[in-house]
Hints:
Layout: H1 2-11, H2 18-47, H3 53-60, E1 62-63, E2 69-73, H4 83-96, E3 101-105, H5 118-125, H6 131-146, E4 148-151, E5 155-157, H7 161-166, E6 173-177, E7 190-197, E8 199-200, H8 203-218, H9 227-238, H10 240-244, E9 250-251, H11 259-263, H12 271-280, E10 283-285, H13 307-315
Parallel strand pairs: 2-3, 2-4, 6-9
Antiparallel strand pairs: 1-8, 4-7, 5-10, 6-7
Helix pairs in contact: 2-8, 2-9, 6-8, 8-9
Amino acid sequence: MKKFARLLNYFGYYNLNSSKKYRFVKELYDETATMIRMQSLVEMVLKNYFGKISELEIQNAARITQKPKLFQYWHQGFDNLPGVVKNCYKSVDFFLADDFEIIRIELKTLSNYIRLPEHIFKARNEGKMTIAHFSDIIRNKLLLEYGGMWLDSTVLITGKEDIRKFTSLENRLMFSRFVFSNPKEHAVQFESWIMWSREKGNLVYQIADDVLMEYWLKNSDVGNYFLYHIILTIIFLKEEKFQLNFNWYDRFYVSNSFDLGRYLISREFKIDALSSILNKTNIHKLDFKQDKIDTSLFGGMFFHESFFSEILKIIK
């Protein structure tokens, strides 16, 4: 427990009430336990690549030469999208259509792009795998086979600059760093709501895919919400080449990306405060549950049909 006490102090969580503090400690404990559990599986998969990392990197990876693809997935289909998602899609189309081939996938069109083994669908259909974990498998497989960009359906884009930095072709892999990540002690180092690969066949995604397939073949429970994030963390920590070659990957913390989401649940609307947030970053991670928030901003709901149009007026 001393380790978790240090983490609480590190993140300032000693100011939380006892129930929230307990929940935070439990989450950290679960993540650490999952990391220990996953290490042996990752090590087993890595043995298949022992001594061949550099060779396979050259053989398998193919740099993107055409307009990169940008993938988004909404499991339930596009007929009755939450307002948050509708507006996020509008923002992506408005700002990123010139730079990316935007591809939106739902469950019934998934087979047009990737093939997954039956035991993955079985775990999902039986309720052993959540939609979140299913989409982790999908994003990893898409980036492995096509390269390009993954963007969660709840990301609002308000400009091009930050995305262009994130997807610079000088960066072979890019992730957003976990917002509470302590490199020395935290089991989760990466987030997966925004991901980039300048090449298809990248070995990191191949190893992660092997681990995910093996995990769901032998396990019937999720284990932890951050299962995929923990797998990525272990891969980078275990394989020295991934750490030493800075061209191999880079972790990119999109600063202030959660500020808009936090602001949207506040009851006090100030145009100056909103403008300040929008000036800090062009990339905003939201939550589809915010669609339910009732406020007086923009006529009663933050995410009615005209929300993105109102945002455009502010940033112009």
